[in-house]
Amino acid sequence: MEARDNLFRGKNEEGEWIEGFYVFQEKDQCEYNRKHLIFRNNPLGVYRTEVIPETVGKYTDLNDGEDFDGEKMFSGDIIEVDWNGKREKALIWFTGGSFVYELSCGSLFHLDDADNPKIIGNKTDNPELLENKK
Length: 134
Prior knowledge:
With 134 residues, the protein is mainly β. The protein has two domains: 8-55, no CATH class; 58-131, SH3 type barrels (Roll), CATH 2.30.30.290. The protein has one helix and eleven strands, in the order βββββββββββα. A hairpin with a 2-residue loop joins strand 3 (31-42) and strand 4 (45-50).
């Protein structure tokens, strides 16, 4: 069995998306101070960035595209998939130990079964894409 990536994405207060390892910190130097942090490596060391908790999403270990060779897909991304001869919008989320997407008919499908998924936005930057989903 192949190990899954432990990669997350979150948005900082400046509006920049940060990718790396996610940590929820309850205490900071013995003081109660909740923080949601993304740690990332670069040539000068490990950096931590505080992110907005509602924006944090886990990498699904899949990329979009017909052959799953495009952009990284994260929970919270909005995708279009081929379904019954048309393109349908769906939100990626994690439930029951799996990444899934929900179609307008209300049915849930495993993300790795998606037909030609394409990222068109995410729930943080593009919530309007979900307004007329149903």
